[in-house]
Amino acid sequence: MDNIIEFNAFTALNLVAQDEMCCWLCQKGTSPRALFCHSCGTIQPVRDLDHFTRLGLDLGIDLDLAVLERNYAALKRTLDPSRFMVRGAGERGHAAKQLEALDTAYEVLRDPMRRGRYWLMLNAVACDNDNVEKTVNPMIDELMAELESAAQTAQCDRVAQKAGQAMEQSIMKLMQALRGKNWRQANAVLTELDGLESILNNVRARRTNLTPEGKSGDGVTSVK
Amino acid sequence: MIYLDHNATTPVKPAVRAAMMEAMERTGDPSSGHRCGRTVRESIEEARERVAALVGVKPAQVIFTSGGTEANNLAKRVNVASLMVSAIEHDSILASVPPHTQRIPVTADGVVNMLAAEMIFKTTHSPGWVAVMLVNNETGVIQPVAEIAQKAKAYGHLVHTDAVQAVGCISIDFAELGVDSMSISAHKIGGPHGVGALIVSKDMMLQPLLCGGRQERNRRAGTENFSGIVGFGVAAQLAADDLMEAPKIRRWRDETQDCLKFIAGEDAIVIGERAPRVANTLCIALRGISAKSQIMAMDLAGVAVGAVSGCSNGKVKTSHVLRAMGYNDAIAASALRISLGWNTEPSDLMRCIDAWSALYRHARHSAQLRSIVA
Known about the structure:
The structure holds two protein chains of two kinds. Chain A is mainly α. Helices cover about 55% and strands about 0% of the residues of chain A. The longest helix of chain A is centred in the C-terminal third of the chain and has 27 residues, at about 155-180. Chain B is globular, with a radius of gyration of 22 Å.
């Protein structure tokens, strides 16, 4: 019998009903996550949802990218503007805004860096100086110096390769930090990733001005 | 009455009902050339487009049928040398193939055994026809259909998937699955009974099951079920919301599962717990209490849950799915299916847990009394 009392308390704590919202057209109750009113079938305005919920995903830093892609594709098909062509201006407007919100959510979640930043924001962690570990990765300065002295595209490519590898490692570090709720370290890794990304941007810019032989060229060289 | 048997059928969504009522007010044969017929045709094509978008295909790839069973039977009307079906298929597949048909076994978790499947594909005359469902209706276990299709096609076989239980629970992309045909049904996504669809690849050649008309591009004769198809179209559009609700439903399902396990301890066995499952399904066996008794007790407490393998004319039969997973008859005959849906509320689950807990306590008490008497 004791078991039963404990479980009821557990249930009451966890199975909490979600707040309902009203359909803008028929005023009947809808779920805050619903794209359409289940009473009149009308598309609903964009609600204040987190990106995970907007894509039908569990809230968590680790996500299955295949599910993300599939859900995004399915929801995008549902919100395709051609399907609302014969609807009123209000519905067309809501559909367009829903699609925009969906695209934004997808763009943030598919990119580990942006997802990490967003996860920090969801966890109300400000990216201020107090939350950044003051450790500087010497590799960034080394790569920057190597790039500045690069006179050939092959040298630029080597820098890009090193930066790419460092980014992969940093992303893994970022995920570990976020999983462990080590916000300071996560912020530090994000700063590091910003540095590596700017190196890659500089490589692209520099490459366009170099010929394979190393002389300043016409910028025709293929950009990575 | 608390309804927690959404895998059997879901309540019709109000918007679907409204669209169907409006459709029933209209007259016209979609094959007629006059204005009445043309407007009905337009509505059918709009619904076809919505159903196509649900699974990521072109509208021409959608053949409307009378439901999942007809779609499964129609899918089999291809010119092949052999048939192969998974051991956990729905009866509409299993009963429609000869008894000696190759059965692809499943693991103890209820997932198709890939090694065995590949061996069967390799040793069976091609072209063969392979049927593996996308989500099992009893356990909710998701099958690796894309992987199976890839392997089967390497040996020249055609692949069909029964996605009736998957649609609305997981996002589906027909092309990504790589199958040749797929069946879906309206009444599993808040649509009406008696309407479904077979989705086919562009080059699929089918021998019609019903002849005598040129409907559905000569692939399924008979005047279309207009109001049903319109309802299916609306339900297909609303199914996007079911995807959005899946994380919430999963949380509720998992919490219900934890409660039931907490109450019954080792007497409760969650079927397919370690396998990837859809969010809404909980298949649980309670040792020593038959599914029939459980369903009756729950029914008296005002909670409708499903028997695993379903009831036919009110009779509960032992699940072939659980037997294929290696469970003995006693466990297979004591499994229940609790399935959540678009209108499930936390209070429904609390009442279900209360009813289940009461029946468990009652059964345990009776067993104790019996042991004292003995």
